[in-house]
Write a structure and sequence with these properties.
It is built from eight helices and eleven strands. It has a four-stranded mixed beta sheet.
């Protein structure tokens, strides 16, 4: 697998703060969101890579390992244990294999440990990393609104996962160690789950914001009044201003979608009013409209 520089991918440098990382991720996520790029075959792959970069760099522990070991950061613990073991062998036998001390870089070491060729004179078995598994999980928009737990069956084994609120359509998360088994004591592969989230019949989601169109009768549009609308968090009462025009947009702050892994933060809900013209008027109603038009 080719090395992907997460910093370069997000357009930031290694001194970037958590706020810088979040800002860069949100900007790129909107740019490459599959829903906004239906004709771009690479949008989904780009979106997944951006999510992966954000998952690693926004986590201080993972970021530290990534900065030290690069593409091999996920195997840092195995590397440290193996290096300590080799250091002990080197001290007891000066002719023994000295690992990274003999000039190998991290990548060479991991190729030998997790599936590459062994050097001459090494009398141990090659450890092969297990195969990665990929799965797709379908959710309704309402399912992705709140954190929930689900049980998946992978190769006959049940895996209980927690799905954070605000998961994006097309986003991929990794469940470490739940892929194929390793060979010769090598580590298991990982399970990658891509989420497919359908838009709600009433709401359309773009990033953390929700959009909806609400019908408004002519009388309320002209005279103003109170209406009650549905949100994903329950019903909300709105005050409609007199002489509200067709296509008027309003914003309900913090009534959108929860921000992924940022508890207590929400996007906004944007409402567009669609004024409905009355039909099947009675004769008396027609006369009143005629009289109104003459005024």
């Amino acid at each position: 697998m080719n090395f992907v520089d997460y910093y370069k991918l997000l357009g930031i440098d290694k001194s970037a703060t958590t706020k810088d990382i979040k800002s860069a991720y949100r900007k790129l996520a909107r740019k490459y969101h599959p829903d906004l790029n239906p004709n771009d075959k690479n949008a989904k792959r780009n979106f997944q890579q951006i999510n992966e970069a954000n998952e690693v760099l926004s986590d201080p522990v993972k970021r530290k390992k990534y900065d030290q070991y690069g593409k091999d950061w996920e195997h840092s613990e195995q590397f440290e244990k193996q290096r300590q073991s080799q250091g002990q062998q080197t001290r007891s036998n000066s002719a023994g294999f000295s690992g990274a001390q003999s000039g190998e870089d991290f990548s060479d070491f991991f190729e030998a440990m997790f599936g590459g060729a062994t050097g001459a004179g090494r009398n141990r078995q090659i450890k092969y990393r297990g195969e990665d598994f990929n799965a797709e999980l379908h959710l309704d928009l309402i399912d992705a609104y709140k954190t929930q737990k689900q049980t998946l069956t992978v190769n006959g084994k049940k895996i209980r996962i927690t799905i954070p609120a605000g998961i994006e359509n097309g986003q991929t998360i990794k469940i470490a160690g739940h892929g194929g088994p390793g060979i010769n004591g090598g580590p298991a592969g990982d399970l990658f789950i891509t989420f497919s989230i359908a838009n709600h019949s009433l709401f359309k989601r773009l990033g953390d914001n929700l959009y909806a169109s609400i019908d408004l009768d002519l009388y309320t549009s002209v005279l103003g009044g109170d209406i009650t609308i549905d949100t994903l968090d329950g019903k909300v009462k709105l005050k409609v201003k007199p002489e509200t025009q067709n296509g008027t947009k309003i914003k309900l702050k913090d009534k959108g979608f929860p921000v992924y892994k940022n508890e207590g933060h929400y996007g906004d809900l944007y409402i567009t009013y669609t004024v409905k013209i009355p039909t099947n008027l009675t004769e008396q109603q027609r006369k009143l409209f005629i009289k109104l038009s003459e005024l």
